[in-house]
Design brief:
Elements: H1 3-38, H2 46-67, H3 75-101, H4 106-129, E1 145-146, H5 157-162, E2 169-170, H6 171-189, H7 191-201, H8 203-208, H9 213-239, H10 251-261, H11 266-287, H12 293-331
Antiparallel strand pairs: 1-2
Helix pairs in contact: 1-6, 1-9, 1-10, 1-11, 2-3, 2-4, 2-9, 2-10, 3-4, 3-9, 6-7, 6-9, 7-9, 10-11, 10-12, 11-12
Organism: Nitrospirillum iridis
Protein name: Simple sugar transport system permease protein
Membrane topology: Multi-pass membrane protein
């Protein structure tokens, strides 16, 4: 076996595994954003949902040892996960009430909830731990990792499936991949998915056809919050094992960009999330070198802007080609 080829493949597998981990929170949030967008009410509060879910998950897993001292240790991280999912979904439900019941502007309400989540999590963290930066003083839990036995010694594949430290990937990484396929199937092949898309395409026509538009939009926003909460829980109980102030770090906004960069389709959204994950890995690698921090922080947003511009130009060229083909067909004898 060519040692140079194995070394190259192993290095590529390390980068691919790191990209998958970095893309997981963005993937969760972008799938949530896709569902709400297809329902006709894009969830702009994804950033805040991730923050609230991460905070609730970490705090609950840490304090559950005091609340349930006789419970087995494996239960505490799952209690934290459940609390994080509930807290994030509740924030998305609050956005739904503001928009669907009170008539608030979706964008303004979403940004307001993001700001609220940023301030509230820091306030509660300072009250509970005395630290405004992180919950490092609390002994919180991480969700388990799944390791594939027997392949650790297999070149490339072992690194790809079990990571460069041979400890496996966090369980939420696999949940995110499974959710991708499930959502893609449900949106196209289930009655709920077809009704949700119909509501987003033309709410008046859907209402005239007897569809419960408001309930479908509630469902879209709540499902969006549940998925984005998965990304937040992963940040606090998988990617790290603590909560940091503003630890979402713009991932919710990257997820929104991924929805439109992917053409409002599940596969395109996943690819865009992986691109942003790769950009985050690149920024982290450059941060280990003598590269100014300002340049490192610029990489993910620059990649986002460049990708959106390229996709828009491609769409314009495709439209022009179709228009030219149509004119040619009309003028041909």
């Amino acid at each position: 076996m060519n040692l140079d080829l194995v070394a190259t493949g192993t290095a590529a597998a390390v980068v691919a595994a790191a990209t998958l981990r970095a893309a997981t929170p963005i993937l969760f949030a972008s799938l949530g954003g896709l569902i709400s967008e297809l329902a006709g009410c894009i969830n702009v509060a994804l950033e805040g949902v991730m923050l609230v879910a991460a905070f609730a998950g970490v705090i609950t897993s840490a304090y559950s040892t005091l609340w349930f001292p006789d419970a087995p240790l494996w239960l505490h991280p799952w209690l934290g996960c459940a609390a994080g999912l509930l807290a994030g979904t509740a924030l998305a439900g609050l956005l739904a009430v503001f928009h669907l019941e009170l008539g608030a502007d979706l964008i303004v309400a979403g940004i307001g909830l993001n700001i609220l989540a940023q301030g509230l999590t820091v306030l509660l963290m300072a009250h509970l731990t005395g630290d405004k930066g992180s919950t490092a003083s609390l002994a919180s839990f991480a969700l388990p990792s799944l390791r594939w036995p027997g392949i650790g010694a297999v070149p490339v594949l072992g690194v790809l499936l079990n990571g460069d430290e041979d400890t496996g990937h966090n369980v939420l990484v696999y949940v995110a991949m499974a959710a991708t396929g499930l959502i893609a199937w449900a949106l196209r092949h289930t009655v709920f998915g077809l009704r949700l898309r119909a509501t987003g395409e033309n709410a008046e026509a859907a209402l005239a056809a007897g569809l419960p538009v408001r309930r479908l939009r509630y469902a879209g926003l709540l499902l969006s919050g549940l998925l984005a909460s998965g990304g937040g829980v992963f940040l606090g109980m998988g990617y790290l094992t603590l909560f940091q102030a503003d630890m979402a770090a713009g991932r919710g906004y990257l997820a929104l960009a991924a929805v439109f960069l992917g053409g409002r389709r599940p596969l395109g959204t996943v690819v865009a999330a992986l691109v942003f994950g790769a950009a985050s890995v690149t920024a982290a690698r450059l941060g280990q070198l003598a590269v100014p921090a300002e340049v490192v922080f610029m990489i993910p947003p620059l990649v986002t802007i460049a990708a959106l511009v390229l996709v828009k130009q491609h769409q314009r060229l495709a439209t022009r080609r179709r228009a030219a083909a149509g004119r040619a067909a009309l003028l041909s004898p």
